[in-house]
Amino acid sequence: MSVLRSFSARGAGVILGVAVLALSGSTLASAQMPSPTPVLPALSAAPADTDADGAEAAAADAAAAGPSIELSSTSRDDTLSAAEVEKVAAQPHVSYTGSGLVAAVNGSTVTASVTLKASRTVDVSEIGICVRDSASGNRDFPKDQGGNLPITGRTILKTQTFQPGTYTYWGCAKVNGGWYNVGQAKAFTIKAGATTSTAHVSYSTRDLDASVNGSSVTAKVTIAATRSVTAGQAGICVKNAAGVNQDFVKDAGVTLGTGGRTFTKTKSYVPGTYTYWGCAMVNGGWYNIGEKKTFTVRAADGGRATAGGEDMPADAPGGWTRVFSEDFATAQDKGHFPGVYGAKWRSYHGFPDTSQKGDYDQGIISVHDGALDVNLGTGADGRPKGAAPIPLLDDSGKVTGQVYGRYTMRFKADNMPGYGMAGLLWPSSGTWADGEIDFPEGAFDGGIWAYTHCVGNPQKNCSYLETGVGWSGWHTATIEWMPGRINYILDGKVLQTVTKSVPTKAMQWVLQTGTMGDGPAKGTKGHLLIDWVTVERWNG
Length: 540
Prior knowledge:
Keywords: Hydrolase, Signal. The chain is an all-beta fold. It contains no helices and 34 strands.
């Protein structure tokens, strides 16, 4: 981010490194940070998938309206997502093209295809064919998840049904947390009275319920359909008292039928009253299904978030020597960090993050109830606030690194669209080409990812991992960096071992949060909680 770095939305790709400077004070001042030069293309208006408010379960008009669109084969160069920071100056420009865009209409069924290409191979988190109706409502074909977009191109072929009307469609891809509208746009028309061989579908729910345990909420619902249909997403939708989406993580590509499908999800919420219900996205439109209920999360200890789960290990594993540990046993008021932690921690403060949509502000950090609390939200100046605490590995009072190491943190975060995290190892030299290791990383309304950037060519990822795990529950993430090998470990399980392009020079650890993509809505706020962290030195 701002010379720290940004992180990619839902792990969508290139993560930027951070030039962490040695310092003796408690913050990294903006004067010490080189000014990043935006070179990545900004994103055109995104065909955002949002829930429909007050839609009838079986009404086709339940689809949420998307934003108005402005198509361009390459987007403006004025915006960076929060996954593109310190490496931004080294990132080559990427352009996107589309060809072969065509749609065949058969009654109310439309089959569309397009081939998308990039000027260099890039990772995508979603890719497909975006659609808008005449009222700018989002009617996208189901998108493909993950993979890459190569120079040679990637062909998308999709089929779904539409209500009568005229629709605009085009190729689109989500890269680094932002949507690119690619190539030309065309239109197709469904004539009034057009039918398919399938009957009308209606939806219902049963067994809607939620149980609250402190800040943790577990909700359940069973969603049924009068015939078998495939939902692009389905699950439990939630809004807070201000009407801001606080949904549980939804399942993708699920089949709904007469027997019903049960969804059970758990997530942490800040104190307040929330409305929840069953919901599904079918044929590009959101259906709010069945009854709505409410649950209330009570404030504990003055409304402060609470830590819990798993004790910090007392000893290092075999083959490692403990060089740093912190279980946040001493309280520190918000607005005064590092305060009592000044001998062991530094943080960024007082300058914009890479997206330029938010700022680093160590004033949002506090310690209470055995956890470090990063309280993300909009500041008094109207700008979103993030933070980047940095552990000090020796008693010099300066940010230092080491060659190889084991880095562990126990954490959880609220669902905060537009905010995310990158726990990263960044070269002590400040030279991005020396490598970068990122875990845990991702958008707080998405999942946890891991990335290994290629040594010598860091704008490319030599490995990436989508864990399929969200941020809402307590999790323990570990990077094991050894000669010729990196292990990504989540909750005690090795999910990936990387042997390609393993860094060999000193790196330092930064726990970075901030804005991503188009940034958060003004009312979006919540907490990243860190229960404890440990760092070990490799004994080999």
